[in-house]
Amino acid sequence: MVIIEPENNFSSLKTQLLVNYVFTKDVSSLSLSKVTPDFDPIIGEIIESKEFTAKDGTMCIIHNKVGSDIKRVLLLGMGNRENLDTEKTRNLIGKVVNKAKELAISEFVLASFDEMDEDHLSAIVEGIKLSDYSFSNYKKDEDKFELNQVRILTRVDLASNQKVIQRSSIISDAVNLTRDISNLPPNDCSPKDLANFARKLSANKKTKVRVIDEQELEANGFGGIMAVGKGSTNSPKLIVIEYSGSPQDEKPVVIVGKAVTFDTGGISIKPSDKMEEMKFDKCGGCNVIGIMKAVSDLDLDKNVIGLIPAVENMPSGSSYRPGDIIKMYNTKTVEVLNTDAEGRIILGDALSFAVKTFSPRVIIDMATLTGAAIIALGSNVAALVGNNEELVTKILEYSNKTGEKIWELPLFEDHKEQLKSSNADIKNIGGRSAGAITAAAFLSHFVDDTPWAHLDIAGTAWNQEGTREKTYNPKGATGFGIRTIVKYIASYNAH
C-alpha cells in the first residue's frame, strides 16, 4: 500500500490528491508552480485572507481544473520547522489519511520535505498504516472505505528509503494484527482461541509454536496459572513461541505477555461498571503475538522467545479463593489476598519457566497489570520497572523514537517488604501504597538475576477515559509497546 518514488518532473504525476507540507515560516513564499502555475494565484488569495496559516494540523484543499492529472492539492500545516518531531509527523499524517477517507479518495501522494530522514519516513509510514486501521468485524452493514495506495516522493536514496518503508510497514502490520486480536470479545477469544492465533506464526520456518495445555501445566507444577484458570470452563494455556534467527547457543531475548482473556476479578469480583473493557486484559499477550510476527517477518538475526500465559479469571465453585496458598512453578509459595491480582500470579509462573528453560540474556514482560499505574501516570504513559539499568535505558531511548511514552518507576527493598506474608513466602498484594511498584516487586521474585524489565500498559493498551486523542490510535486496542520493543530487539547485540 505504501510505496516510494523519486521526486521528478511533476508534469508526469497523476493523483487524486497531492499533499504538500507547509511550515509557518514558508507560507508567504509558498508556490506550487512546479505542479501547475494555475495554483499560485489561488494560493496567494488564500494566504492573504489568512485562510491557511500552516499551524499544526491546519489543512486547505485546492481543486484543480476538470481533467487535470492532479485533481487536488492539500496544504498540510506543519507548524514551526524547529518543533517538528516524529510524533508530530506520525499524528499529522494520520490526519491526512482520515481526511482522504472522509473524501472517499482511495490513493494520494505525499510530497517530500527537507527533514524527511529515516526516523521521519518511518513515522510517515506508521501514520498511514496505523491510522487506516478500524475494527468492524461485527458490523454487518459497515461501509468501510479502503485506502489502496499512498506514494511517498523522495529526493534521496531510493533503495535505502524502500527498506525503511518495508520495515516500518511490517511493524505497523504487526501492531494492527495485535489490535485485531485484542479487540475481540471474550466469547471469541478464549485461551484456546488465542493459542490458535499464535499457531499461525509457525508458517515461518524459523518459528515454532507449542501450547502447553491444562494437563501438562498441572503435571509440571505451574501452580499459579492453574490456580487462576481453574474457575473457568475455558482451560488455561501457556503459549510458547520460539524464533531461531541465530545459532542455537546464543541466549535469547524472552518476551512475556499477560493474557487474561476476560477478567471478572474472580471471587474478588470487580464492579460491573466498565467490566466489558476487561476483554483488554489480554493485551500484553496479544502484544507478544504481534512482536513475534514482526520479528519473524523482519527475519531478524536474533533468537527470540515469546511466552503467553493465557487464562480466563471467572468466579465459580472451582475458583481459587482469598486465603488460598499457591505453590508456584519455581516452588515459592504465594498467599492469595485478592483474586483480582491474578496477572502477576500467571506471569510469575511464565517468568520462572523462562529462566529455567531458556536461560535468557534478557526478559521483558508486558501486562495490563495495575490500575495503580494509571493513578500514578495517567492513561498516556506506561510504567517501567526493571533490575538492569542498561536494559531500562535502552527501552526508554526507543520509546522516545516511537512516541510510546514510558516512565521508569523505582524498585526498592522497601517495596518487596510490603509483600512479606506471615503464612507463605510472599503475598499477592502489598496494600494501597505504591501498587504498581509492589506488583513489579512480586514479579521480581521469579526472574532471579536475569536482566529484566516490566512494562505496565494498563493505561495505554486501549483508548479509555483520559486517553489523549491521536489520529493513528483509533478507538479500541492500541498495540502500545510493540514498536518500542521490536526496535529494541532489532538493535540488541547479544555478544
Overview of this protein structure:
Strands 7, 8, 9, 10, 11, 14, 15, 16 and 18 form a nine-stranded mixed β-sheet that branches. Strands 1-6-5-2-4-3 form a six-stranded mixed β-sheet, with helices on both faces. It is built from 14 helices and 18 strands. With 495 residues, the chain is an alpha/beta fold. The radius of gyration is 25 Å and the shape is elongated. Helix 11 links the parallel strand 15 and strand 16 (406-408). The chain has two domains: 2-155, Leucine Aminopeptidase, subunit E, domain 1; 184-491, Zn peptidases (Aminopeptidase, 3-Layer(aba) Sandwich), CATH 3.40.630.
Spatial separation of the terminal alpha carbons: 37 Å
Please summarize the sheet with the most strands. 9 strands, mixed
Unreliable runs = none
Helix content: 25-40%
Alpha-beta content class: alpha/beta
E-strand count: 18
CATH topology of the largest domain: Aminopeptidase
**Quaternary assembly:** single chain
The fraction of residues assigned to DSSP E strands is: 15-25%
Keywords:
Aminopeptidase, 9-stranded mixed sheet, elongated, 6-stranded mixed sheet, 495 residues, Leucine Aminopeptidase, subunit E, domain 1
Helix-strand blueprint:
Layout lengths: L1 E5 L11 E5 L16 H10 L10 E5 L8 E6 L8 H17 L4 E4 L7 H14 L17 E6 L3 H25 L8 H9 L7 E6 L1 H6 L3 H7 L7 E8 L8 E5 L1 E5 L19 H16 L4 E11 L11 E3 L5 E3 L7 H16 L3 E6 L3 H7 L4 E5 L2 H14 L3 E3 L4 H5 L8 E2 L7 H10 L7 E5 L25 H10 L4
Parallel strand pairs: 1-6, 2-4, 2-5, 5-6, 9-11, 9-14, 10-11, 13-17, 14-18, 15-16
Antiparallel strand pairs: 3-4, 7-8, 8-11, 12-13, 15-18
Helix pairs in contact: 2-3, 3-4, 4-8, 7-9, 8-14, 9-13, 11-14
